[in-house]
Amino acid sequence: MCDESKPVDGEVNDNKYFSKTAATDAEVTFEHRSAPPETRLYKKRWVIVFLFSLYSLCNSYQWIQYGIINNIFMRFYGVDSFTIDWMSMIYMLTYIPLIFPVAWLLDKKGLRVIALVAAALNCTGTWIKVASARPDLFPVTFLGQFTCSVAQVFILGMPSRIASVWFGSEEVSTACSIGVFGNQLGIAIGFLVPPILVPNVDDLDELAAHIRVMFYITAGVATFLFVLVVIVFQERPDIPPTHAQAAARRISPENYSYTASIHRLLRNKAFILLVITYGLNVGCFYAVSTLLNRMIIEHYPGEEVNAGRIGLTIVIAGMVGSLICGIWLDRSKTYKQTTLAVYLMSLVGMVLYAFTLDLGHLWVVFITAGTLGFFMTGYLPLGFEFAVELTFPESEGTSSGLLNCSAQVFGIIFTICQGKIMDSFNTLAGNLFLCAFLLIGTIITGADCSILIYLGICSSLIVKSNIVLGQLQPETF
């Protein structure tokens, strides 16, 4: 049996008047009325979340593998820097129209089907790239990247669903952080490995051989992980991990309307504010990651490898931040305060990075980039878990899908705009452009938290009064 979580500090679902943790607390209140459903935690839950993290890693690695050696691929394929930027932005663009049908599939078909499709598409894309290691085959390599970008749509919405389906209530934030951790680690490897495997050599035949080796390694790993997913990945545990998950299983799929769920979410004012602020923060991260090679090379020519190491520093620091934030949320349940604090520090980190990039000392850039990454990337699991808390009992896949959709939209806009600003002015102007939007996001997050504090007081009073009057039924959950 797993312990249910303690009451949260006033979180609220705008539609249902109480949050997931509040519902769990009320659930415990009714244990004397009826026998609670059996719950159990399986050791296999760790295998599932780590396997997901691995194939998520393999996919996210490919997102940045072109951009971090932008100048090398420009010369190899004979295209301009904006075209290579699209090798990263295609991940963002593909997500926007596909997220809603994929989220619907996740609700209708479940975790295993989505995992199989994601791993299969990712594997297919890597083998297409193997055939594209020639200067005249840029359309083929773009097709491979497009295929991998479609796989990403089947990956990004899964961490919160895996966490809720497989893990106990005291582990959900940690499990979600581990799921996001794999994606971040893939980006970190994408920053580090391509500059090492593909050095900036003059001979195009030698360069093609290096690129081919990189593509073969990726294809081999993706194929191995696809086989593992086919053999190991399980839809859900036989016995649910929490009472809330047991109640969710009693809801017939025929009684669930995906369209109605989206409409309810779009009427949830607190959630809409979170969608905007999440998109602003993560969109800035996408822009910085995509344009990092150009920023570093402008001030430190010939430092392609160190550009990758700086990207690695950003993501590794962010992975530490993600895990710390996930563990902190599991213990404190202070969603509002933690989200605001991390957002504010993301702004501070971006300002420090912007004003130290051109000082001429790479070690300073490593420090400020790490600070930026710790908070900006550490915000990712906070957004997912805060969304689940705000929108319970709506599907985790739907809420996280809307968050990611916002991030992709802002990511494309910020990457294009910052790139044009850098071309017309300099990198400082481009980074200050991002700082301005992070400031806006911080202000909105502060306003969102104030609204939630007020709504939380109302929520608490409503739940308590309903319990006293005997009007709240366990089936509500």
Write up this protein:
This protein is mostly helical. It has a single domain (41-243, 257-471), classed as MFS general substrate transporter like domains (Growth Hormone, Chain: A). It contains 18 helices and no strands. The longest helix is centred in the last third of the chain and has 43 residues, at 427-469. The two termini are 19 Å apart.
Task: Quickly list its features.
MFS, 477 residues, single chain, receptor, disordered C terminus, mainly alpha, 18 helices, Growth Hormone, Chain: A, globular, transmembrane, 0% strand
Short summary of the structure?
This protein is mainly alpha-helical.
Q: Over the alpha carbons, how many angstroms does the gyration radius reach? A: 23 Å
Give the biggest sheet.
Answer: none
Distance between the termini: 19 Å
Q: Which overall shape is indicated by the principal axes computed on the Cα atoms?
A: globular
Topology (elements, then pairings):
Layout: H1 20-29, H2 44-64, H3 70-77, H4 81-109, H5 111-130, H6 138-156, H7 158-166, H8 172-197, H9 204-232, H10 243-249, H11 258-266, H12 269-299, H13 304-332, H14 335-356, H15 362-376, H16 379-391, H17 396-424, H18 427-469
Helix pairs in contact: 2-5, 2-6, 2-7, 2-8, 2-9, 3-4, 4-5, 4-6, 4-17, 5-6, 5-9, 7-8, 8-13, 8-16, 12-13, 12-16, 12-17, 12-18, 13-15, 13-16, 14-15, 14-16, 14-18, 16-17, 17-18
